[in-house]
Amino acid sequence: MADSQGNDAQNGQPKGQYSGPRAIDPVEEHSHDDDPDFITRTRFLSGVAVAGGAVLTAAILVPIVGFAVSDSVKNPPDRWVDIGPMSNFPDGQTTSIAVSGLSQISDARAFVRNKGGQLIAIWNRCAHLGCPVEYFKGGDNYVCPCHGGAYDSLGLVVGGPPPRPLDRFNVKVVNTTGQAVGGVGSVHGSWSTAVVGPTDHLLIGSAFSINQNQQAYGLHDPGEPVTGVLSHLYPFS
Amino acid sequence: MSTTDIGPKGSATQAGEAVVNFVDDRTAATTGIGWFLKRNIPGETSWFQTLGFAAMAVFGLQAVTGIVLAMYYKPDPTTAYGSIRHITDDVTWGWLVRGMHKWGASAMIILVFLHMARVFIFGSYKYPRELTWVTGALLLIMVMFMGLTGYLLVWDQKAYWATVVAMNITASAPIIGPYIADILRGGTTFNSDSLSRFYAIHMLVIPGGIATFIGLHLFLVSKLGISEPPWSKRSTRARRAEEAAARAAARQRGPRGRHEVTVDPEPQTLTAEAGQ
Predict the structure, then answer these.
(1) Which whole number is the average pLDDT over B196-216?
(2) What does pTM read for this prediction?
(3) Cβ of A70 under 8 Å from any chain B Cβ?
């Protein structure tokens, strides 16, 4: 504003010449332009415009983003799928069967292993990067065509890049009236077949991951180890 | 130029000038076009500096062929592959347009990388063109995303499983990887919504982003001008002249920055220093 050494720009009065009364006293302006704490009308209205614009933009963007994203990150609901009578899965064999309608999972194939009085349903999704593994009857093992992951009869890793064994489905055996039968096996997701008859139906449900000792963990995406340091990279799995 | 200015202008010429002037008075379009196209460029500009335009031209090709392919393609798991077969086998020149789009995609990736290599080797990313490089890097990411999302649309076994693997690689990124993969494929596993989601990303989301960033990229190129190659004879001459001038100035100056050589007032100091 006014320079203390030179002329007062607002009054047009040279300093030090005349200091007596004047015909017209200069009106002191009440300008708050240089006061950063004072909210002028302009600043208030600008703030209202910005805030209002933000609210309107959010009112448009929130539904759009929620619509595009929220169902994608939700886990699909569990569902039991009837995959046929137990006579389709003879004792001592591993039977491959395509499963449709199991939540959102497409192209899922289960290898139902009925051996040693235990039922295990192994998901064909390779634990490395999700390619479909193939079952070889001769060696009783699983091999992934993409990057050479190899698994033994129980789906445990014996070679290649997979960070954990093959995932499994929960299994349930029901009789003709829909009542669950069969005992609990020693491994989560497997059942003892001691009391299961050939007309009882086999159901498979949600999938879960295991470690090399066949301890159950929540279902992980391919590429995620369930044990060790690197398992902490995926805290929300 | 000079010969055509002689004599009265034809009515067609006058009408054309009137239209141009009408638009130009209201938009200053000729000024903007002149600013964009009639720039000074280094004398040693070569074919290497045309790679960026080549990539942009192929983007135009991809946009046009993609638009007409979308008129026949059906992004649904049960019909997608059949519609691809229909385009290739039945529609007139469908094999050609699909081939242009498919090979154009490879050509675009190659041109984009050659363009990036040119900028890197010429050092053109240096001041003041850092933001041009940054927008170009974002364009590279979007172009790669176009490759990823377009690859799935063929919907054959190779496309399907390659994309499944690519999504699982995405999901294996720490902490946020699983969420990014879920959002991209529209679920925790690959599902019937994934194809239409990739289709929307491929033909609506990313092309808009690429067009926007090409605009920014070109604005920066136009504003900053293009750089000389590092082996430019002109810049080498200029640098040598500067160095020669600096050496000449240094010879003119006396010791300790003085401009005139004067007699040292204390010669004994030098002697004492020399004696130590």
Answers:
(1) 96
(2) 0.80
(3) no
Minimal CA separation from B145 to chain A, in Å? 18
Q: Which residues of A touch B162 (CB under 8 A)?
A: none
Please, what's the largest Cα pairwise distance for chain A? Answer: 119
Q: Is a pLDDT exceeding 70 seen at residue B35?
A: yes
Q: Among residues A149, A156, A110, which one has the least CA distance to residue A129? A: A149
Buried b (16+ CB within 10 A) or exposed e, B122-142: bebbeeebeebbebbebbbeb
pLDDT at B275: 43
A236 touches chain B (CB under 8 A): yes
- Per-window interface: A 4-63 vs B, CB < 8 A: none
Q: Which of A72, A224, A235 sits opposite B186 (nearest CB)?
A: A72
In this prediction, residues B9-19 reach a mean pLDDT of: 91
pLDDT tens digits for range B63-118: 999 999 999 999 998 899 999 999 999 999 999 999 999 999 999 999 999 999 99
Instruction: Tell me how many helices (H) and strands (E) chain A has.
Output: 1, 14
Mutation choice for B interface testing from A73, A219, A236 by most B CBs within 10 A: A73
Which residue among A72, A73, A130 places its CB closest to the CB of B165? Answer: A130
Q: Residue A96: in which H helix or E strand, if any?
A: strand A93-99
Give the residue from chain B lying closest to A128, CA to CA.
B168
Is B174–A234 a contact, with Cβ atoms under 8 angstroms apart?
A: yes
Tell me what the pLDDT averaged over chain B comes to: 89
CATH 1.20.810.10 assigned to domain B46-224? The reply is: yes
Asked whether A15 and A21 are in contact (CB, 8 A), the reply is: no
Residue A197, pLDDT score: 79
pLDDT of A1 strictly over 50: no
Selection from A103, A139, A138 nearest residue A123 by Cα: A103
**B81 membership: H or E segment, kind and range:** helix B80-89
Higher pLDDT, B1 or A62: A62
Compute the distance between CA of residue B111 and CA of residue B116 in angstroms, rounded to an integer: 8
Assign domain A81-233 to a CATH class: mainly beta
Q: Which long-range contacts (CB under 8 A, 24 or more apart) does B59-65 make?
A: B59/B108, B59/B210, B59/B214, B61/B100, B61/B104, B62/B101, B62/B104, B62/B105, B62/B108, B62/B146, B63/B207, B65/B97, B65/B98, B65/B100, B65/B101, B65/B104
**For residue A18, what are its two tokens?**
């005349």
Three-state secondary structure call for residue A51: helix
